[in-house]
Amino acid sequence: MGRKKAALSRQLADIDLRLLNVFKAVVDYGGFSAAELPLNLANSTISNYISDLEKRLDMHLCIRGRAGFNLTEHGVVVYNATTELLAAIDQFRTTINHSHNRLSGYLHIAFAEHMLSVHNSCVTDALKSFTQLAPDVEVKISTMSSDEVTIAVQNKKVDIGITVLSERYHEIETLALFSEEMYVYCAKGHPLYEQNNITTQDLQQYPFVESPRLLRGREPHPDMELWKKMAKAHHQEARATLILTGAYLGILPKHIVMNWGLNQRMKPLFPKLYGYQNTFKAIRRKNIGNALISNAFYQCLTDSLKVQ
User: Fold this and answer.
1) Would you tell me how many other CB atoms lie within 10 Å of the CB of residue 99?
2) How many CB atoms lie within 10 A of CB 25?
3) Who contacts 39 (Cβ-Cβ below 8 Å, separation ≥6)?
4) How confident is the model at residue 3 (pLDDT cuts 50, 70, 90)?
5) What is the rounded distance in angstroms from the CA atom of residue 123 to the CA atom of residue 121?
6) Exposed, middle or buried by CB within 10 Å (0-12, 13-18, 19+), for 92?
7) What mean pLDDT do residues 60-78 have?
8) Per-residue pLDDT for 113 more than 90?
């Protein structure tokens, strides 16, 4: 009777680590399609990578179908082992960096969408300082909605996020960076656009586009609880598109309306009453594996605020 084939009978190579990183990302993001954007890979390429990994390990790792993406028992084992392996590699890199007083490795930052159009230079100044301080560190930046940035930091998918927090989290430390003004907007074609003497009760008669701050319990003003949220668009561009139809009212940052030249097509309603400020913050977990690199960039952000 022949001996059972060993699934991993050799040293791990760079390609193995590459395949394991792709596999972990697919699991973390919940499927092949969801992982395309963060991995910057086509669905077919991801599929080929997972197939290659399954062949190299001699294991069936996942199931794809109408029921969605699910791990097999072997897949769960490999995912847990991969998480431990990659964390150990990060810790090894941190230890060596500290020993040599030199930074190398990766820094993954998540930006809330359209953040830089607020025209605050502290982030770009910090990035400039960091690249000079740590030229061997590979910087990766992903753009997401505000809530997605928070989730990515909580789930350790990114090292640092720059976003607007909807609530406080005990496991996350924050650094306030800059603010943006938010207004309720009405576009041409909407019944209220040309109407004079609008009352706050008038707003309750028309559909709104739901945004993160219009979710129950997050409303900046109690009147907003009474507004009819008939559409959902948590990304700014999608929300602006719905408002421009003239069928919906909605909340947008003032700087986006101005920078996109939309101030000729929409106007704010009750800016003093319903206007509010979002504060962008740098966020990170209090205990992270990539601490040395993360600390360096966090310090660059702190220093950039001192010269604003």
Assistant:
1) 8
2) 18
3) 22, 25, 46
4) very low
5) 6
6) exposed
7) 87
8) no
d(CA 9, CA 6): 6
Exposure class string for 251-287: b at 16+ Cβ within 10 A, else e = bbbbbbbeeeebeebbbbbeeeebbbebebbbbbbee
Q: Average pLDDT over the chain, rounded to whole?
A: 88
Distance CA 243, CA 233 (A): 10
Token output for 101: 């007083």
Residue 64 to residues 20, 32, 35, 79, 131: CA-CA distances in angstroms? 18, 9, 14, 16, 40
pTM for the full predicted model: 0.68
Q: With 0-12 CB in 10 A as exposed, 13-18 as middle and 19+ as buried, what is 4?
A: exposed
Q: Which residue has better confidence, 231 or 146?
A: 231
301 vs 9: which has the higher pLDDT: 301
Q: Which residues pair with 137 in a beta bridge?
A: 105
